[in-house]
Design goal:
The protein is α+β, with helices and mostly antiparallel strands. It has 13 helices and 21 strands. The strands form six sheets. Strands 2-3-4-6-5 form a five-stranded mixed sheet. Strands 10-12-17-14-15 form a five-stranded mixed sheet. A hairpin with a 2-residue loop joins strand 2 and strand 3. Helix 5 packs across helix 6 and helix 10 packs across helix 11. It is elongated, with a radius of gyration of 25 Å.
């Protein structure tokens, strides 16, 4: 969803958002019948505001230009040693070059006239931007692979062509739209893949030749570039690095055929999810779980970190989509249908519904007779026992508890406690009985925000045999509840109380380009710091 004011303000990283309004977006539809549809209100800018915005836009465009130049600066020769491999398939500062280039493409018209030639050179295809002496190409199905003659072996070109064809065939067999044709820009209508030495830290990227119109539609053609050398990369073989790079970047090319300007967190998280679906045995995306809802449950799901030196949190968010696809496993062509449905909901081509990221998730879950409030709380609870939740969960480290208590015969209650939980975040309180605590039950009193704002709780009891029983807590309209579970030290290992905030109300289209963190709909969350109050006590 976008507002109709045109190109007046700058987007968050990678997003063209053209509004000055404080658009208030309602919470998703939950089981209590609240309205799932957002309402965005616009205001008309004054002439003074327009002048200020033009200045800010030029500054932001220059920042985007500097970012891309820095990312594409060649690494020193000493850095190409295989003794010091770069562990991640992202740029050294954690930003994906695809979205950095998208930022610049969308801001290109806002650059001062004297700087546009610099941007045009960076945004041009590799034959121009890399100064190739003798461009040659070879066709593989729907893909045309280009390289500078004499710089790459024929065997490598054949590997690239076979891998790119396999990846695209996988997506299209699963029902995804094919990347949009660029006509004859690369010589014919095939998807163009360029092979060049990107240097240490860069695995590949996709780009487009022209930004979409400011009022849409927002689908664009794509071309992609893969590195000619992955010998410096760690984690797995060079060939496997090529494979997962192709799966990730060609999913970006597929995304462009739906919405070039979709929320950046959603684009990165779903592209990282796709790697593991196409190449299930490589498991490169596990490296990102250290910065993810699995390990950082109290950080919002939908954040995109655009600052230098930030951890690549947006890549770790793939685990939420893995949870969805294992919970809703219906597949077509070997890929879960629910993910294609999400991209069909954000589709911003002509006539598409043009939902934004988390709005699409909420509406898709509603179509499946559940809601985000239930699913997100259950996701947070499930991450406490990944080995029992996920197909590959034995390799995942469980989410930690925000607070832990141990009750004894002499100390077996707490006063009222409070956790502050941001939107699309969870926090778990853990309580254990000592061996001497016999014949007791645990009473859990909750005073949460109203469930219509996304507040929820799951109580899970773990017994001595290793089994767990989870209960989604039924809250009153005011957010209150009481739950009682068995709590003998002879039979109970622990009880978890997972408190969840699935609030997705935003002041959409109000984020600034230089904000270090960006959220859904380029918005400012209205549901952060939700006070979750609880009290624990044993009863006879």
């Amino acid at each position: 969803m976008r507002t109709p004011l045109g190109r007046l303000t700058l987007p968050t990283t990678g997003l063209l958002v053209a509004v000055l309004a404080l658009g208030a977006v309602a919470a998703p539809g939950y089981a209590d019948g609240t309205d799932p549809d957002p309402a965005v209100t616009n205001t008309t800018p004054t002439a003074t505001t327009g002048a200020t915005d033009a200045t800010d836009a030029a500054v932001d465009a220059l920042d985007a230009l500097d970012d891309v130049e820095e990312l594409l600066s060649p690494a020193p020769a000493d850095d190409r040693s295989t003794e010091s491999p770069v562990p991640e398939r992202t740029t050294d500062d954690g930003r994906d070059l695809t979205l950095a280039l998208r930022d610049l493409r969308l801001r290109q018209a806002d650059l001062p006239s004297g700087e546009r030639a610099r941007a045009a050179a960076l945004l041009s295809r590799p034959p121009t931007s890399e100064g190739w002496a003798d461009e040659v190409w070879s066709d593989f199905g729907s893909v045309r692979v280009h390289w500078d003659n004499g710089t790459v072996s024929p065997d490598y070109i054949n590997q690239v062509g076979a891998i790119a064809t396999h990846v695209l065939d996988t997506y299209q067999t699963a029902g995804y739209r094919a990347p949009k044709s660029d006509g004859t820009v690369g010589g014919d209508a095939k998807l163009d893949v360029y092979i060049t030495d990107l240097g240490v830290g860069l695995y590949g990227y996709c780009n487009t030749d022209h930004a979409p119109p400011s009022k849409g539609p927002y689908d664009t053609p794509a071309y992609c570039t893969f590195s000619s050398d992955y010998s410096w990369a760690g984690g797995q073989t060079a060939l496997d690095n090529l494979r997962v790079t192709a799966a990730h970047e060609l999913f970006h090319a597929t995304q462009f055929a739906y919405d070039y300007e979709e929320d950046a967190w959603f684009m990165e998280a779903t592209a990282t999810w796709a790697e593991d679906e196409v190449y299930d045995d490589i498991d490169d995306n596990r490296q990102y779980l250290s910065q993810s809802p699995m390990r950082q449950p109290r950080k919002p799901l939908d954040q995109f970190l655009s600052c230098y030196s930030c951890a690549p949190r947006q890549y770790g968010e793939w685990i939420f989509f893995r949870y969805l696809t294992e919970r809703f496993p219906q597949a077509q062509g070997g890929l879960p249908v629910i993910m294609r449905r999400l991209w069909q909901r954000v589709d911003a081509s002509s006539g598409g519904p043009d939902n934004y990221s988390i709005q699409a998730v909420a509406r898709e879950l509603a179509s499946r007779k559940t809601d985000l409030r239930h699913v997100y709380a259950q996701f947070g609870d499930a991450n406490r026992r990944p080995s029992r939740t996920y197909e590959e969960g034995r390799f995942y480290r469980a989410a930690g508890a925000a607070k832990s208590w141990t009750f004894t015969p002499r100390k077996h209650s707490t006063p009222w406690q409070r956790l502050l939980i941001d939107h699309l975040s969870t926090g778990t309180v853990q309580v254990k009985p000592s061996a001497a605590l016999r014949g007791k039950r645990l009473r859990i009193d909750l005073a949460l925000p109203r469930p219509k704002t996304g507040a929820a709780a799951v109580v899970t009891r773990y017994d001595k045999s290793g089994r767990s029983k989870a209960t989604f807590v039924r809250l009153s309209k005011a957010g209150n509840a009481r739950v009682v579970v068995p709590f003998s030290g002879r039979t109970t290992t622990r009880v978890d109380v997972t408190l969840s905030n699935a609030g997705i109300r935003y002041r959409c289209w109000t984020a600034q380009a230089d904000d270090p963190v960006h959220y859904s709909c380029s918005g400012r969350p209205k549901d952060n710091n939700a006070p979750m109050r609880y009290r624990l006590s044993t009863i006879g």
